[in-house]
Amino acid sequence: MTEPFKPELVCPAGTPASLRTAVDAGADAIYCGFQGPTNARNFPGLNFTPEEMEQSARYAQDHGAKILAAINSFPTAGRTDIWKSAIDDAVRIGVDAIIVADIGMARYLHRDHPDQRIHLSVQAGASSPEAINYYCKHFDVKRVVLPRILTVAEIKQVHDAIPCEIEAFVFGNIGMMAEGRCALSSYATGISTNLDGACSAAHCVHYNEDEQGNMTTRLGEFAIDRYSRNESAGYPVICKGRYNSEHKTEYYAFEEPVSLNLTRLLPDLIKAGVTALKIEGRQRSRAYIRNVVSAFRQTVDAYAAGEDPDITDLLALTEGHRQNEGAFRSKTWK
Amino acid sequence: MTANTQNPGLVKSPAISKYLPPLPLLPLQPVLARIVKTIVRRQPGLFARLGPGTKKKFLIDPTNLPIVFLLEPDPQNPKLTAIDRRKDIERDVYIGGTFMTLLRMIDSQTDSDALFFSRDLKVSGDSEAMVALRNALDDMDSTLADDVAAAFGPLAKPMRSFLDSFNKIAESKS
Questions:
Q1: B68 vs A: CB within 8 A
Q2: All residues at 6 or more sequence positions from A109 whose CB lies less than 8 Å from its CB, including other chains
Q3: Which of A36, A296, B2, B28 is the most exposed place for a label (fewest CB within 10 A)?
């Protein structure tokens, strides 16, 4: 009897301690980035120096886990050396794969380090077989991280038409925006998610609570939400704010502060050909990583063993204390 | 952002402190100094992650206690001071929650983002310094609560058990 396919559980880490927590909680692979603008979670106090990345890679690999370096923001003219240097460091350290989004960095990596395994970041926004096949053909990409805009049925169609593995998000930020192309935060702060790696740069975020306990969240000069006392809050990002217009008041113009949780869809994703299941949240704490990774480890193992898993309730860790299955089940979600 | 004393999150006179005489905080200060020294010794990488946040003043407010704590993580002279909440306190960052909430957070029992989403954790002021502190404290194999316990030397083990019992109470209530 053949063993049922068990997908790889890919987990986030924003610090070396988080990485060790993810490994110890049962991650098969951990993705993380260097300090600075070369990855899409460029926040104060987060990420790894080259020395920390090297030590962390040893820890992960010694414990049977892979380490994936996210170098997945987009360099602009005059700054490409920073990204190339990060790629060179990651190769020297011996990471198992490098996750890139920029086509120029994909070319650099493939040309200068032809033996290094390449994954295509969700930030590349490659959602069609034509786009993915282009990256596979020209840069020998081994895995694509799919944008969170496809249904499971569409993922199956993509799988059947590409030569590389598929990694799909299963928990965390829903990210319905055109990934790698969103400029909302840049418009409000002048600092780019895609070029600087910082969505809602921390120094532009301001929280103010009045005497009644109502909290207003501002990004730059824009008020993006106002929560009444004890109302659940979300991240301080433009896409999850509530706004007033001529026709509506206090409405979510883009998306609601809800987290993705595909626990119940895992068997369908695996049947659709997904190789790796990705948990979002490099900016989250060790407590989040320990709880979410452990829960998914148990669930994946149970499904692989043909058992009905005890699905741990992760609602307390979700944004806005709400969760759904995003576009994976239906395009009509909001 | 410059330090200020305006803080809508800080309740200066909660029921518990309204009728209290001036608090005798002097005996507490050497204990806090010892805690800070222990943390600095056990977590040398803390300041690098804090970056410019090392020059900021963090007001930590256990909202159900009559005192607040002022953390000044300057690597040259780190300080943690207990202050009567009725005083005006200059700060750059405000972090408030019940004592149990803050304890569970520094003991890595719960996720600070989740506490923010649920509004159990209140924050205001310099968000960059706040995020840097959160990430710096999270990059530890032990927890800040472990370090607090360790500061009590031979009493570290009973202190750790004491904190654990608080955590259990908090967990049963959450």
A1: no
A2: A87, A98, A100, A116, A118, A139
A3: B2
How close, in Å, is residue A64 to chain B by CA atoms?
Answer: 20
Could you give the ipTM of this predicted complex?
0.91
**What phi and psi values does residue B97 have, to the nearest 5 degrees?**
180, 170
Find the mean pLDDT for residues B31-37.
89
Whether B73 and chain A come into contact, CB under 8 Å, resolves to: no
Which of A210, A231, A285 is facing B113, going by the closest CB pair?
Answer: A285
B72 close to A (CB below 8 A) = no
CATH number of B15-173: 3.30.1050.10
Q: What are the domain boundaries of chain A?
A: 8-176+258-329, 184-252
CB contact under 8 A, B139 and A16: yes
A180-211 in b/e form (b: 16+ CB < 10 A) is bebebbbebbebbbbbbbbbbbbbbbbbebee
Residue A168 has pLDDT above 50, yes or no: yes
Confidence band, pLDDT 50/70/90 cuts, at residue B2: very low
Model confidence over A92-133: pLDDT tens digits?
999 999 999 999 999 999 999 999 999 999 999 999 999 999
Residue B10 has pLDDT above 90, yes or no: no
Is residue A68 within 8 Å of A10, Cβ to Cβ? yes
Kindly state the average pLDDT of the residues A1-14: 86
